[in-house]
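Prompt: For my understanding, could you write out one protein's sequence and backbone structure tokens?
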Amino acid sequence: MNFFSLFKRRLVYFIKKKQNIDNVFFKKDKTLEYLFSYFGTDKAIFDKLNNRKGHGYSPFYEKIFSPLKKKKLKLLEIGSFSGASAAAFANYFYDIEIFCLDINISNFIYKSNQIKVFGLDIRNTSSLENFIKKIGFIKNDSFFDIIIDDGSHRLSDMLFSINYFFPHLIKDGLYIIEEYNFPKYFQHLHDINHITIEDLISFIKNKKFFESSLIIKKNISELLKVKNVETFKGSLLESDIVVLKKN
């Protein structure tokens, strides 16, 4: 993605009128299914806003997030599109700061003091370094409580992201990859001759070392120390999600 395309999309984002969700109040007993559906994210079982069936991840997210609901959290979302899931999380958790990364932030329709939006290409390391400086933490330091990869779903991007961002996850932090099997269902997303995320999950579960051209050995060692791996099958054939709990 060239500089001018990114600049144009950022300009559209800044001048575009957005819904201020800080003016929308929900009781904290609202479920994630309700919030996902209300704001229009495909994480819902059924997205009422867009009148469509979703991936159905809400039971999975409710299970892993309900124990964290009242904690102070920092969440990184890779791939945010309209900001619908960020809006849902902002209204679900009691005290959360959400960082949204997307290559096309012109699609964003929500805004909140809890949500910070960054338009960048996650494969551009210099842009990532600038992002890190802007949010105020030291490279290679742990920072995020939760990281959700809902980006391009290209195999190379998913592997690049886990290599770059997993070290920035705190102890007991959660690293989540949505639709990790997309490269199996959609051949154009299998863009590199490499182990898949499904393979990676198997290696982690079996504590078996593996070689990778995209994940450095230090990070492979850390991934093999993961405390817990949990997968979930959603509503659609291609709806596969995994969470890794960092040791």
User: Anything to note?
Assistant: The domain at 3-245 is CATH 3.40.50.150 (Rossmann fold). The chain is about 30% helix and 25% strand. The first strand starts at residue 19 and ends at 20. The chain has one domain: 3-245.
